[in-house]
Amino acid sequence: MRYLYIAGKWTDAADGGTSQTINPYDATVLDTLAEAGPADVDAAVAAAREAFDEGPWRRSTLTDRASLLSKIADLLQRDREQLAHTESLDTGKTLNEARADVDDTTAVFRYYAGMAGEHAGRVVDPGRSGVVSRIVHEPVGVCALIAPWNYPLLQIS
């Protein structure tokens, strides 16, 4: 991935910055990537905020959400070998460890797909007859993070 993906488009870094990703095994350059600067992070956060506030996810049904998360899990498993190979080259892990990372990431998506499909909030006793009290957890916003080198796929997921 040589570009940044911001607001639904692949783009160069605003300041033209790049960074090389190095294979930790033999120090060869795997690729040269766009390196996000402050302007890129601001643009990405603004795009994520707009998507969070105005995008379809918030209005989608629990069934739709569960289906999408399950599809991502299916795609991770479909591309497991390619992802594991890339993760191995990038982190220096063995191929078996990288496969386990892809499997762990798949499990995360399957877990949340199950929650989206089944979890409608926890009902608590409000102490009054005829009153239903439900605790529902909802996302509150957008965050930016720096993915660590040792579990990049799992961390961003």
List low-pLDDT spans.
none
Would you tell me the structural class of the helices and strands? alpha+beta
Rounded radius of gyration (Å): 20 Å
Major β-sheet strand ordering: 1-2
Give the SSE order as H and E letters: EEEEHHHHEEH
Mean pLDDT figure: 88
Shape: globular
Oligomer: single chain
What does this structure look like?
The protein is of the alpha+beta class and 157 residues long. The protein contains 5 helices and 6 strands, in the order E-E-E-E-H-H-H-H-E-E-H. Helix 2 packs antiparallel against helix 4 and helix 3 crosses helix 4. The two termini are 17 Å apart. The model has no long low-confidence stretch (mean pLDDT 88).
Task: Give me some keywords for this one.
alpha+beta; 5 helices; 157 residues; two-stranded antiparallel sheet; 48% helix; 6 strands; single chain
Strand and helix layout:
Blueprint: E1 4-6, E2 9-11, E3 18-22, E4 29-34, H1 38-54, H2 62-78, H3 80-91, H4 95-118, E5 122-124, E6 133-135, H5 152-156
Antiparallel strand pairs: 1-2, 3-4, 5-6
Helix pairs in contact: 2-4, 3-4
Short description:
This protein is α+β, with helices and mostly antiparallel strands and 157 residues long.
